[in-house]
Amino acid sequence: MKQELAQGQSWGLSNAVLSRHLPQIVKKLADSKNIIRQEAVRCLFQMNEIMRSGNPKENNFIALILPYLNNSSNWHIREELLNLLIRCFLSTRDQGEFDCFQILDSILQLLLNDTKEKVRSLALEAVAAFASIGPPNKLSEVMFQLNVEKDICELVAQRLDQGLCPTLNAETSNIELPYQELFNQQNYDVDSVAHSMTN
User: What are the pLDDT digits (tens) for 119-131?
Assistant: First the structure.
């Protein structure tokens, strides 16, 4: 891969080059060791930074990882890809770099349908992170055009009303989730909120 970078493209990696390496790295997100998963996320994030240096019409890192987010049977992969998306959102601080419809459609599918409570909870934080980097009404407009169910829209609105959006630690660049931390301390069950409306 280093050779491809050296020969390849000062404008960044192409989708064709990146896609050859992506499955191997995403597979590491399922590793039982947390340190391995963290390093895989770091590697993917650096790939994203390389892709951002190129022409956005030719390089779409997010489009490459979203199929893994929605189709992986391993919940650790879904979890770590949500962590990756949150980090990408908070690093760029610009919704204009993303396809709002594509991203929110994928994340909201996890919020509604994922079998793992931890993934559903993190999906809600990913939505909050994305909302925090754009205009106040943008999220509701996109959800309306995606025809998102009323109950999910209300859940997202309730979450955003609470504030405490995800942040990046200034020293380590690690994701901080103050909302989750607060309610974990209070033994708050996100699952009871997110799924009471589906029963």
Answer: 999 999 999 999 9
